[in-house]
Amino acid sequence: xxxxxxxxxxxxxxxxxxxxxxxxxxxxxxxxxxxxxxxxxxxxxxxxxxxxxxxxxxxxxxxxxxxxxxxxxxxxxxxxxxxxxxxxxxxxxxxxxxxxxxxxxxxxxxxxxxxxxxxxxxxxxxxxxxxxxxxxxxxxxxxxxxxxxxxxxxxxxxxxxxxxxxxxxxxxxxxxxxxxxxxxxxxxxxxxxxxxxxxxxxxxxxxxxxxxxxxxxxxxxxxxxxxxxxxxxxxxxxxxxxxxxxxxxxxxxxxxxxxxxxxxxxxxxxxxxxxxxxxxxxxxxxxxxxxxxxxxxxxxxxxxxxxxxxxxxxxxxxxxxxxxxxxxxxxxxxxxxxxxxxxxxxxxxxxxxxxxxxxxxxxxxxxxxxxxxxxxxxxxxxxxxxxxxxxxxxxxxxxxxxxxxxxxxxxxxxxxxxxxxxxxxxxxxxxxxxxxxxxxxxxxxxxxxxxxxxxxxxxxxxxxxxxxxxxxxxxxxxxxxxxxxxxxxxxxxxxxxxxx
Length: 500
Known about the structure:
68% of the residues lie in helices and 1% in strands. It is built from 22 helices and 2 strands. A two-stranded antiparallel sheet has the order 1-2. It is globular.
């Protein structure tokens, strides 16, 4: 009897665990998950710091090796490698304002970015970037920091009067590119298609001539890139990602060179072209159900093409933003904006071609002019990695840490772009793909050998997008990373006299 009873008891199904036991099990599972997440985040944090240490080491080695090369044979043609700068510790009228902006954005930037209405955030981001860039420029004083920057012998304003008769000036533009040509152009005029100098000719024609107005134009237009990148990020990822990135887009060390450099203005034109393409491809922030929705997307695509065409006629090297544009179309899985994008770009090309300027001839002669100057002796073997040290300095430690996370996540994100994988829905994955495309453009520019030195200004159109990766950093460390960004910019601006 006992054996049969035992057998019957063994064959009965086990009674379900009591509610208290189930709750305890779930609590234990959640605790284990939280512990694993904390361990993973601590590991990621240590790797972030290791990446920043690696970036600092790269800058240090570039400075030491570059100084040795420059002292040995002067072939780098920069006074404070890897930057085009000189050692010049100083304070200036912009110092108090720069410190104030740095503190306000560091302390209040993340919370304001999280709660401001979207449109107000975009405008506030632009205004804050304008204050940050302007105050850093004024550390060198009004004349040295802004008004005289674009009036040196290398710059655009020295040739304004040669464009009084616009038609002949454009038709003969390529005849003055080479150093041995009669009455050759200054370095920056020769090094860019004519839209660059025509911008300042246009300012002069409307009564805004001189270095002061030119400098204010570059700072005001250039800092609008923050608004453009925010709009593009929201369209391609989501609003939360754009909000997390906003303070880092404002408080970037690149602002040291945005004010005052024409390349900052070029950066804004390129950024708006990409932002409008993102809007045209996604339709976000544009009316969808109203009858005007489709026309507005078409208008965004056409405007993007016009700005892309203008970008190509501002700087030869900025044709590389086509790589970022391709990534946008790949992310959105659409080619619908392409016809109007191409139409806009071709319209700009047609205007300049009919006016007598040949882009391809200009580029061919630029390459020849490039090697008639310092590029002929600047060693590629140094600058191919020295340029990357410049990139560390203009993007800052927070961006270096964020790019470490970007590269770690890139293989999985790129696999998600396969047609069989379906749309890449995770905002973080879409951000990773976008930033990877920007890094690819930088890599191509670097390997080309057409950017040996001075990339702290030349690569500003790419640098304005890279801090977007900081949205991947943990939110509770944003203020610390922002403080590091500000400290680097303030140190560079107060310890060095930068050439741009």
